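thought: fold this chain, then report.
action: predict
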Amino acid sequence: MEHRIALVGCGGYGACLARALRDIPEVSLEWGFDPRLGRPESLGLKPAPSFQALLEDPSLEALVLATPNGRHKEEVLAGARAGKNLYVEKPMAPTAAEGEEMGRACAEAGVTLVAGHNLEALPPLARFKTYVLDRGKPILAVRGVASRKIGSVREEGAWRFDPAQCPAGPLHQMGVHLVGIFLAWFGPALDVRMEKGRSQGPRLLEGSLTWKSREGIPVRVESDYLGKGGILEVHVETEDGEFHLTPGRLQGPGLFEEWDLEGAFHQSRVLYLRRFLDAVEKKEPGNWAHALAVSLVLEEGLRSC
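observation:
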């Protein structure tokens, strides 16, 4: 079954999604839209004259949205009205209320909505979970780190520093992956707390979330725009010792494996986009309820500050 898809947002991460889409044989990716001139062409795509033109194209089954957080709600609601299935970058929206409105609109329109929590499909993470968590040994504590050095707020990606689009700063933009992963692993978050770290005026540069699982496991997520740690780290303390997933390596008692960061991240995007297409074919709602649960944890943390 061929899936005709258009890409909205042709910047750096849009390029990553375009490469992933092209690795799925059943995908036909021809059109792209970006208000910045030349962006679609730089990815080998035909430039659509407008977002509306994509909505009005009856041959397009789905849109993949790699746009700033503040545009997600408007684009998803318009896509739902046009009957398009939608893959939107994480976080689904800046607020849980917006995310719920988006999810319900897609459900009422009978279209699939998937938020791009693709690192939940990261192959080394799956192997790490199988080795560490699925053996039935008691888990004593879990900590995740998502860190990346991002420079001047005047750069193209300055929206990442905008409290209106990323209310929890790096936790909203990068730590959100780990929140989703740990909710999937351990279930609902209880007694959520947030600590804000270094800031630049109203722009939060680092922060952490803590909570407990239903089984009482302490969970901590740290994220920053300062490059203090790895882009993705998971540290699990068990009765058998400590296990670590860090960029390029899995290690712990009886465990040592090296992995290719760029290749694994690309594979996670391909796998998650395939899940999206499977949901489209089966007319399933997508993962928006999970993405909403992630947003609710972030908001509970913000209220605790």
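thought: worth noting. The chain is about 35% helix and 25% strand.
final: tokens above.
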